[in-house]
Amino acid sequence: MKRALLFALRYVLPAATVLAGLVIMAMGGETDLEGGASVVSAGLAIYFVNWLYRIGATGDHERDVEEAARRYFDEHGRWPS
Question: Which of 2, 25, 42, 46 is close enough to 14 for a disulfide, judged by CB 3.0 to 4.6 Å?
Answer without folding.
Answer: 46
